[in-house]
Amino acid sequence: MLSVVTLISGSGSNLQALLKACDNPLYPAKMLAVGSDKAASGLFHAEEYGVPSFVVEPHRFSTKEQWAEVLASNINHLNPDLIVLAGFMRILPTNFVDQFYPKVINLHPSLLPKFPGAHAVRDALAAGEKTTGCTLHVVDAGVDTGPIIDFRQVPVESTDDEHSLHEKIKTEERAMLVEAVRSIAEGKIDLEEIGGN
Ligand code: GRF
Question: How many domains does the chain have?
């Protein structure tokens, strides 16, 4: 059984999909806890599934590294096999990334390496892309630059705005995440190999 900790900052629809999957005894992963950098609305989903949660707020620390150290110690205490960033809107400093690499994976709402950063959906629309999508990748020290695990394409309709397009992308993200975590648990995706270790 693959043990997972998920970090979120937002509404947590990807988290909810993964919690639902983990709730099925036939699914080969278990959610140990959910963490956040704030009182995110999505933490409600953890409560709904009886999964513990923790919040580590950056503004309570004088440096980003100190914040990341406390976040890491919360996670280390649980000793998960995998850490999923599902809408976690903070850049993790190298002291965090290095100690867990390649066990931290991130969902991003564009076809990387196109449109990294916090406004990927808006940026793809502004660039007039006809196709965009989502990417699941291993987190390295850069911003959305790590080795790619999987991606899904989503067509951009002329009627799409940022919200409608993001919702379509998130539908694909949820399916991709649930499938990828299963494949990691079953050894069909090897993060050590993808991460180049
Ligand atoms: C997703 O689109 C993810 O790729 C991005 O933030 C969004 C989170 O959505 N990093 P949700 O909170 O899982 O609904």
Answer: 1
